[in-house]
Design a protein that fits this description.
It contains 2 helices and no strands. 91% of the residues lie in helices and 0% in strands. It is mostly helical. The chain has one domain. It is elongated and about 45 Å long. Keywords: Membrane, Transmembrane, Transmembrane helix.
Length: 69
């Protein structure tokens, strides 16, 4: 039972982090649309996009691993 609770808590933390990063990414996109686009904003967007991809891949790999078990 503890492992199921731990899996659910890890999944919820991953969901919260990825949703927060997505909201920050969208906010930066809106700021870039109304202001001048500079290199620093593009670098920040690149890192946030990379972290979002990492968290989503962790979530999907965990789901696949759980279904295989």
């Amino acid at each position: 039972m503890k492992t199921k609770f731990l899996d659910k808590s890890i999944a919820s933390v991953v969901n919260i982090i990825s949703a927060t990063l997505a909201v920050i990414w969208i906010a930066i996109m809106f700021l870039m649309a109304f202001t001048a686009i500079n290199g620093v904003a593009l670098i920040i967007l690149g890192f946030i996009s990379w972290f979002c991809l990492v968290f989503y891949s962790v979530k999907f790999i965990g789901a696949k691993h759980k279904s295989l078990a």
